[in-house]
Fold these 4 entries.
Entry 1:
Amino acid sequence: MDTYYRDVMELIGRAVDALGVLIIVTGAGVATARFLSSARRDFSHSYQSYRQGLGRAILLGLEFLIAGDIIRTVVVAPTLENVMILALIVAVRTFLSMALQLEVEGRWPWNRGEELPKPPS
């Protein structure tokens, strides 16, 4: 029974990872299609929207990738070494998420009501 449970959790973790990758790829495709259809009218606005759409897809995909890593590490192989590797992966992905959110929304995640000033163009 224990082996069956671990196998099922491994499969679920991989499925969550695959969903994260699918979200990133699909989001990039949708953002690119929107950019290409509107870039001729207003390039600067289209480019900004493209970056925001791509950033949102990556942010959401990263959340799923982190969830898949947690499932596989904690449930399937909870050794100290694997948990330390997971902590490093989560730290890197969290930093990437925060940097992307700053790029997409123009503010840090903890500054919900505030917006950073835009740099002069």
Entry 2:
Amino acid sequence: MTHEPSAISSSDHLPWAPVRPGFDLKVLHGRADEETRALLLRLAPGTVIDRHRHEGEVHALNLSGQRKLLETGEIVGPGGYVYEPPGNVDSWMAVGDEPLIVFVTVRGAIESLDDDGNVTRRSTTAEIAAAYQRHVETIRGAAARSRS
């Protein structure tokens, strides 16, 4: 078995990619041929992550700000860790006065659910990584055009 060398880098140079108003992300790790991704999520206060189901496990660490788990009412603040097992269904909201930043590792697809539990959208590591790469390339292209 071969192992990839460790990769250590700062995320400061990575751009935030808008997902929708109030919700941005950075892909720290994730490739089309992998199931697991590592992300930074940034949500403005009041932004809701609608009900969804995780195909695989999720590990989430709040770096700053607070979020409310809508199913239980629990508040997760800075340093708070949440584990979500495969099949978990949840929704949450950024609360408080400052943006919420969460580091997450997600394995497998995420399925958005309607009120009846029907899947309305499915996203995978490959799709998220490709969309983020397109965003980065767009920013690089704009920067190169402005320098010429």
Entry 3:
Amino acid sequence: MFCKLPKNDVVAQVLGKQALRSGTSVGANYREASRGRSKAEFISKIGDSLKEIDETSYWLELLVDSGCVSEKKMVSLLDEANQLNAIFTTIDKKAKGN
């Protein structure tokens, strides 16, 4: 998605870079969680992943709201973010015993 944003649109580039950073951070935090040394560390990193998923959704929504990307083009990424949010919420609840 980021590579397809217009290079000459400063708003699109700033919002896109933020989405790229937070979106890739989800996987990095999940990897850290899976290698956690304790249950507390696992839960903490899963929580970090949830925060990054939410932040990524925010940046994607701003790309649409700013007119940089059409809602039609963003639907699948926003849906994927919502699915990841549901998955990580379930993981978080089960790890906490809720």
Entry 4:
Amino acid sequence: MTLVDKKQLIFHINGLVRTIETASGLAELSPTARSILSFIGEAESENRALNVSDVVKGPGFGTAPTVYARLAELEKADWIKSVQDPRDGRAKQVSLTARARRAFAKMSAEAQKIIAT
């Protein structure tokens, strides 16, 4: 990769992300929903379990009702699943579904190709 290419790298990466988001259906989600999905994915990649309350308190996702609505939309669209927290029966843990993991794996694979060049 030449120096000029490296200066344009972020635009190339953003273009690939948009292409994958469109192909996987992620582009149909609101920016807030995509951010929440990413937040959940990052926690999973660090082997951290997240409760719904962790997401509600997350970095600037909006008011609690907005976050709850986005989580419900993500679950209905099969991007996330929620289950009872085994440590606290009153709480629910959220995690990515296979669909979301495939979309993020594809993005990661494309990023690896860029890094390898």
